[in-house]
Amino acid sequence: MVTAVMKIVTPCWRPCPAEREALRNGNSASANSGKVDGLLWYKDFAQHINGDCSMAVVQANNLLEDQSQIESGPLSSVESGPHGTFVGVYDGHGGPETSRFVKNNLFHNLK
């Protein structure tokens, strides 16, 4: 059973081709690009090894206290190290400062 589950989820740890290309070209900003429509933020479909991937955030008020991130690529400071996808969702609990700090620092300190 574990082997069957691993066959399904292991490809999800690899970066999608568009992200791999952006990382190769040194354009990590493309991972942060998205579109804003009122209280909706979204990133259109990108190719993943097993299909398409996208992301959206809908906020309840004008001040977005929560933060989220997806980091795809090397999961260590060594380029030849393991590759995968890191997903973080951080709840602001009354203010955006802490969730923004965690978003900007957690992954890079774990890496």
Can you tell me about this structure?
The structure is a single chain. The chain is an alpha+beta fold and 111 residues long. It contains three helices and five strands. The strands form two sheets. Strands 1-2-3 form a three-stranded antiparallel sheet, covered by helices on one side. Strands 4-5 form a two-stranded antiparallel sheet.
Put the structure in a nutshell:
It is built from three helices and five strands; from the N terminus they run H-H-E-E-E-E-E-H.
Shape field: globular
Order of helices and strands: HHEEEEEH
* Overall pLDDT level: 75
The overall number of domains is 1
Largest sheet, spatial ordering of strands: 1-2-3
The residue fraction in helices comes out at 25-40%
Query: How far is the N terminus from the C terminus?
Result: 30 Å
**Cα Rg:** 15 Å
Number of strands: 5
**% residues in beta strands:** 25-35%
Helix vs. strand class: alpha+beta
Largest sheet: 3 strands, antiparallel
Number of helices: 3
Low-confidence stretches: 27-31
The quaternary organization reads as single chain
Blueprint of the fold:
Blueprint: H1 2-9, H2 17-24, E1 35-37, E2 40-48, E3 51-58, E4 67-74, E5 83-90, H3 96-110
Antiparallel strand pairs: 1-2, 2-3, 4-5
What structural keywords apply?
111 residues; alpha+beta; 3-stranded antiparallel beta sheet; two-stranded antiparallel ribbon; 3 helices; 5 strands; 32% strand; globular
